Amino acid sequence: MKGREKLCVKLSSTFLRKWWFVVAVSLGIIFFGIIVEIFFMSWVNLVVNHEVTLREGSQTTQWWATPPVVPMIKVYVYNVTNADEFLNNGSKPIIDELGPYVYVEKWEKKNITFHDNGTVTFHQEKIYHFDESLSAGSEDDNVVVPNIPMLSATSQSKHAARFLRLAMASIMDILKIKPFVEVSVGQLLWGYEDPLLKLAKDVVPKEQKLPYEEFGLMYNKNGTSKDSVTMFTGANDITKYGLIDRFNGMPKLPHYTEDRCNDIMASDGSIFPPHLTKNSTIYIFDKDLCRKLPLVFEKEVVGAQEIPAYRFTPPKNVFASVEENPDNMCFCPQGPPCAPSGFFNVSLCQYDSPILLSFPHFYLANDSYRTAVEGISPPDPEKHKFFIDVQPLMGTAMRAKARIQINLAVSQVIDIKQVATFPDIVFPIMWFEEGLDTLPEEMTGLMKLATTVPPIAQAALCGVLFVVGILLLIVAIWRLVRGANRLNSLQLAPGHVGSPSNKSNKDVQMANVPKY
Ligand SMILES: *[C@@H]1O[C@H](CO)[C@@H](O)[C@H](O)[C@H]1NC(C)=O
Ligand SMILES: *[C@@H]1O[C@H](CO)[C@@H](O)[C@H](O)[C@H]1NC(C)=O
Ligand SMILES: *[C@@H]1O[C@H](CO)[C@@H](O)[C@H](O)[C@H]1NC(C)=O
Ligand SMILES: *[C@@H]1O[C@H](CO)[C@@H](O)[C@H](O)[C@H]1NC(C)=O
Ligand SMILES: *[C@@H]1O[C@H](CO)[C@@H](O)[C@H](O)[C@H]1NC(C)=O
Ligand SMILES: *[C@@H]1O[C@H](CO)[C@@H](O)[C@H](O)[C@H]1NC(C)=O
Ligand SMILES: *[C@@H]1O[C@H](CO)[C@@H](O)[C@H](O)[C@H]1NC(C)=O
Ligand SMILES: *[C@@H]1O[C@H](CO)[C@@H](O)[C@H](O)[C@H]1NC(C)=O
Prior knowledge:
Residues 495-516 have low confidence and may be disordered. A hairpin with a 5-residue loop joins strand 11 (291-302) and strand 12 (308-313).
């Protein structure tokens, strides 16, 4: 007992005090290493959250407003090659898939206004330029396609009074309107004058739909959108980063029966809330899609510059019929009958035209729709699936292929002689792939840095801290042991120096260290 007290006195002598100090420092370093190990990633996340948030004048905001990317839309048109036989002879329609017709896009957000509550309002501009060298044809190629305005009008008149249908037939006779039109690809997309729409515009009261006299599948899309979008910047709540708050001032869609389906709290497809996991469901809203589209994790992919990304794709039952996926019931406000499996009815967003969206080549729909026409190859998920690759840490879209097919659900109407022989059919019109292949190097470089550096920095920092801490600790303990022994041999009676007591001193000292 007494020997131990003496030893304590010796150990705290001036000579050894500095080594106790070193022990304290090394323990501090090891403790700091543990703190770094535990909290480093949270600090990185805080930095990421701060960096991605949209603020006036920041680099992120500049990239968001004027993305330095080259998105492209590839359009494939289904040319009907036996229109007359189909109408007069009841043969299967034979169609020829033409394309791609490639348009290079330039995106810019216009009239950006930041609000105090963590939102920003803007108008999206998209400019399309035809790229002949990437296309398999010219914009002037003539194609034969169903007359969408006419067949929409006749299909809608199915439940109207008979005299209306007869009147419609004579008007169409006078205007020489036929169930198929021959137009150029450019006209089909960007607009051609349609006699029926022109008539409707002159006749129908102003406040009632059809604001155009031209018809085109992408009519009025080249330029700045009239729709204002209000989006969360992430400043107040990073989990809402990039999600749409209001569309044209409206917090949700007016079309459906439940808020679940009317909800538009979704991304516009460019940025997503950061820190995505494999369990995350991300959503994309597009006006023409008429709903927000859910996408779930499919697999890990490696993007440009080896940056890891998650591939998100719509769940297989996204457009399933209400029997297979009862969640879709609220998308069918006037049904049943509702859209068949694999189709989404957008007629409420398309001036009541019977337009059904699907994936290209009727992917995920019953094969009977594809085989109802001749000339469409079986769907291939690699070519026809909708997907988007997102960098999960920052929520940036790195690669995307938004693929949608536009179909017209024609109803047979016997009273209108022009279409009396046009059977009930889901007629494919065209499909497109709006895609982004790579990000520019300035963006991928930064993403590479942000994804690879933190884990390496964490490992390196922790490693250095642990190694230095432990080395210092070992040295300090060793010096303490030696110092104590030396003091022993210097100050204690010579008889006490010897291997047995030496050993016991060591034990004592080891027992003492943690007490400090
Ligand atoms: C589309 O089909 C029609 C026949 O219906 C044909 O005259 C026309 O040349 C075809 N268009 C192209 C670009 O092949
Ligand atoms: C209609 O079908 C019959 C028999 O299938 C065929 O012989 C005839 O040539 C077809 N008519 C036209 C206009 O294609
Ligand atoms: C954008 O702002 C300018 C001036 O502030 C205005 O003249 C223009 O109409 C706005 N554009 C849209 C689409 O709101
Ligand atoms: C934020 O403020 C803008 C403009 O005052 C408003 O339009 C928007 O609805 C507000 N959003 C939220 C979530 O409060
Ligand atoms: C879109 O508009 C730009 C000018 O604003 C024009 O140069 C371009 O040709 C247009 N694209 C199409 C496909 O009409
Ligand atoms: C994902 O969800 C499953 C079950 O819901 C859960 O077991 C798993 O831990 C979750 N994974 C992550 C990364 O959140
Ligand atoms: C599409 O929706 C409209 C409006 O809800 C409805 O009248 C029409 O019957 C639907 N079409 C199909 C094919 O379900
Ligand atoms: C496809 O539709 C046909 C008839 O319309 C039906 O008999 C068949 O079971 C359907 N196939 C699938 C896979 O649902």
